Amino acid sequence: MQGGSTMNGGYGGAPGARSPVLASCFPQKMCSWMLNCCLALQHLVVQASLLCIFHLLLLPTLPEDQPHAQATSELLASSLFACGISTVLQTTLGSRLPLVQIPSFEYLVPAMVLSSHLSLGVTMERNGTAVSSICPAPHCSNKGSRVASLQEVSGAVLVSGLVQMALGVSGVCGWAVQHCGPMVLAPSLSIIGLSAYKEAAFFCSANWGVALLFMVLAVTFSQHLGSCHLPFCAWTQVRGGSTETSIPTLRTFSVLLPFAGVCILCAILSHFRVPWESVDLATAQLSWANSTFHAPWLRIPYTGKWGWPLLTPRALAVGITMAIGCSMNSVSCYVLCGRLLRAPRLPPHACNRGLCTEGLGSLLAGLLGTPGGTAASIANACVTGLTQAGSRFPVQISALACVVLGMSPRLVGILTCIPLAVHGGVLCVTYAVAVGTGISYFQYADIDSGRNIFIVGFAMFMALLVPRWLSAAPAHLATGWVPLDLFFLSLLMMPVFLTEFLSFFLENTVSGTLEERGLLSDLALWKAGAGGHHLHGESGEASWVYGLPAALRKLLPSSCKTFPCCFLCPGSEQEEEEDEEDSRTPEEGNTAPGEGTHLLPKPGSGEQQRARRPSETEMPAWHTVA
Do 439 and 191 form a contact (C-beta atoms < 8 A)? Predict the structure, then answer.
């Protein structure tokens, strides 16, 4: 059993030691704009890959009325525009973690269930998601209106945004996250990563050679060559008599460099007409790179472009399942990001604010007519852990780039030229980090306990079994009312919901000791700091990482601290600590918290820093010398 905070992604660092990824830059160590822009581009390509995956899997399930070459790129542009705005809201007003927003798989499953219900010839396959059957004959066509289906799916996204805002304002998710120990987080994060394996295999099957090349390069750069540096990006730090200069370049860009290299290689092969991509029926159905060349260069997304969202009983039922699934996914992503960045435990008010901002983003996405809302990106959070580089500033730059690209459907059409195998490689590399992070939580609990073995095994087994059974026989779930059928079908086909619900229920109802449940070290931490500096230091650090900007807190009226907004703001004692922290930060530098490029310290350096005095335990951050 290790000491320190084990719940909600907490990392047992030194008292008063700030997060290594959200610390501010010193004025004499100016951060490089080029480095920040490259990190932003890395987040952008992963976000673009996941957006393409979402639309590639969803659009074939919609009824086909007419060629939708222009509509495809405009849908993608509108979704990118909404994700960019939601990311800005999340990093400034939400959880304040460097999280990118995308339509997650928890939006994809209910949307495909609803769109497939609106089409003919629905079959169930592929990881418990509904996929409309593809008819190869020329005379085959799906009946129904494609625009009407998009409007109904957008209505479900609109409902999900409203429900997410209600969950955030009411404080339900903030309360739930306080009761999530290691035995809830471990299976939940593990199943989030494992639930994407069929999608990853599906896209890798376009060309396994290309996918494996991407994965080999990403693993080599991040693991084997992680200590390689380039001399022109330098930051000097004296640690134990030694001086380190430059950043670990290959590790920092271990996703961007393989992504660019493989795409360039595929472009060269295509230019010389070398066949490298398999063209089976499924891949041909999803190949859309040639469908966006006639899109306009400039078109600002606006509400009503695809018609107003349809709020039918079916959309209401599916929207509620979207909100439940995405809220669970986002809370897990907050914990995952906090652990990978070694940030303090996630406070309830930050979790509630994060869900509210995601609800606002989904509300905007639904009004713009997109088939997916906004949720925290598991893949981008895992990229932060893989590259050991995290900061709000690059994420905010990538968000602004998303907003600008979302106004040009023709430029967004370039994203459709990304090889399908590269999408599969991105899923394999990023979601593997989520699986490993979930497994790492087992170290805090007694995994030899029969209670814990049953909880983990039962929750994960049922999360894989139930969607598989429903995909093979969806007609078995029939209540006699279609909206209720869609509600249960969408909910029970999401492995994340099943895992988190079962593990949360069993963990908090089956008796077990604190040591057995992995809560003993967390309780000891609070008891040790109840009357001393430790608790004050940890809460002060948490408020510095997750708290709202000082200027914004001063502008908030007193009514924002009463019900129902009280769940979005910290308590009065915590606010006093935030004010004290703000009064001390100007002495350290003029750069705002989270701005700049920050990399985690090398493994093994954390233990040495924890033994130092609180004033000296500020984690190092990589910077570039101007």
Answer: no
